[in-house]
Design brief:
By secondary structure, the chain is mostly helical. It is built from six helices and no strands. It has a domain of about 55 residues. Helix 1 packs parallel to helix 2.
């Protein structure tokens, strides 16, 4: 194991880093990107792992890039043919038929409108009486009983 990546510190061992990310420490995850220790601080086994990973990295850099697979690309593009709004609607309503959610929405709007129209409005007489009583109470509080001669005995 590498002295820069002790197991008790939560870092993966050097062999795991080399197998997963290669010899270039710039490709390693954050927190593990410490410089590879000098050869004197490295064991023979760690040096062998590092040399093997460097050889493999060099081999991969020399290899030609593969040709793109047009059949795979067309398959992926066909599968990804749905636009974002279509995907959103498909998640919301997985059924293929669009008339069902539209009918449910229209029915709920019509029912809400009908209930709103069928509910009687507030009684205006009750509101006027309550308003006048409140106004008399404020007048009595503000100016005293002298302001309302009809209330005197």
């Amino acid at each position: 194991m590498n002295s820069h990546h002790p197991k008790d510190a939560g870092y993966p061992p050097l062999k795991t880093l080399l197998e997963d990310y290669g010899a270039d420490s710039q490709r390693w995850p954050e927190g593990c990107q410490t410089p590879v220790p000098e050869a004197a601080k490295r064991s023979a086994e760690e040096q062998a792992w590092l040399d093997e990973a460097q050889d493999f990295d060099d081999l991969l850099l020399q290899a030609p890039l593969p040709e793109p697979n047009t059949a795979l690309m067309s398959l992926l593009l066909d599968e990804a043919g749905l636009t974002t709004p279509q995907r959103w609607f498909r998640q919301l309503w997985p059924s293929e038929q669009i008339w069902q959610p539209i009918t449910a929405l229209a029915a709920s709007i019509a029912l809400g409108f009908w209930i709103g129209m069928a509910t009687p409005g507030p009684d205006t007489t009750t509101q006027m009486i309550a308003s006048s009583q409140q106004q008399e109470a404020w007048q009595l509080l503000a100016f005293g009983p002298e302001s309302m001669p009809e209330m005197e005995p």
